[in-house]
Amino acid sequence: MWPKTTVFGQNTRTFFLTLLLYLTPFLVVYYRKRSFGEHLFFEPSAAIPLTPEMYTLSQARAIYDLPVTTLLLRAQEAHHRHQDPAGIQLGTLKSIKTGACPEDCAYCPQSTHNKTFVEAEALMETDSILADARKARETGASRFCMGAAWRCVRDGRQFDSVLATVHGVKALGLEVCCTLGMLTDTQARRLKEAGCDIYNHNLDTSREFYSKIITTRTYDDRLTTLQNVRSAGMEICSGGILGMGESVEDRLKMLLELANLTPQPESVPINALIAVKGTPLEDRGFVDSIEFVRIIATARILMPRAMVRLSAGRAQMSLELQTLCFAAGANSIFLGEKLLTTGNNSAEQDLAMLGELGLHPVSPAEARSFHSATAIAHDNAHDDCGMPYFTESGTWARACKEGTEKECLAV
Ligand code: SAM
Ligand code: DTB
Ligand code: SF4
To answer: Most exposed among 113, 179, 206, 391, judged by the fewest C-beta atoms under 10 Å?
Structure first.
């Protein structure tokens, strides 16, 4: 039945069988994509390993838009690879200088432009802050984050006092974080020398939406401070607020700004707007829960080694929503009944919640050693395993460099 003629010098039957053999994988890919959708499918050969600075909006959007089941699975994969999956870092916030801030941040109860419940208070004395830090440590916090309602740090008596406080908090065995507004290079170095481990300075939103929220400083001012923080050897804590009227694209652009920093921030706080009476945003409804969870999951996937902080707005969230946020990759919360000026859940409530969910507090040292251990293990196993990859069409996929679908053996 097979003609005796030859094709390319081969017996025709051998030729067609060989052709079928070569085409089989492509046919399988085609039919699986048709049946399950591209997002479920790994395409090692088409996968482009991207370094973080190459993430694009269409890639972030492709992640964000995954069916929520797949999105959570992908976020969980990143979470289990790079974090203690049951570990939650506990930090306590303290406003050490409250209100009367000259900046016009539309969300902020501490701005002089907004007439809110906040009463201005001068910079606290070191001893008084240290007493609060001790209490935070007794309650279970391992990080103490001090916030000042300043546009920027000014050299002089007040900054010297902050440096002494930082030194004292560090001596208590707590990890020290500060958020004091803009910093020069020299100020960043002095803070680091005094013992400050992390500096919090949020981008808050996308470059495009930023000018609708703040006019008294620029996006690039924020980025310059982040650069100064990095050069001084401190870790970067930078994130933003959801629910100010920004679009999903604005939120993704903010995540991209952060994910494309080299190295990426070690901490990414995601705040839900607390619509404070007397601010221009007082009438904003609470951010959509599912959109919030999607952003947490996208942050976890884009920045797998960062601590993703479930920050402001948690007191307004149900236990179920917080649980979804942890499932999406959030692994840090603020402990204690006050954030800077607004309310938070009580420490007892939060510790009970962690117990109920089977989660446990993780110290910064434990979290860091986990991150570096997984980094070394993965580097030894195969270079890029565990990082997200994107196909040429912008679909998220996972593969390793050798072009196989090996599971990472390192964890
Ligand atoms: N003045 C410093 C600065 O702006 O960097 C530090 C303190 S500031 C209060 C720290 C962050 O708190 C802001 O960047 C913002 O993300 C967050 N924040 C302030 N008010 C908020 C609100 N009403 N709801 C949610 N987050 C808020
Ligand atoms: C961050 O992103 N959120 C925290 C911390 N960094 C400093 C501050 C939240 C403040 C919420 C409003 C208030 O309590 O004043
Ligand atoms: Fe509030 Fe900080 Fe803006 Fe000042 S700079 S208004 S404290 S967010």
So the answer is: 113
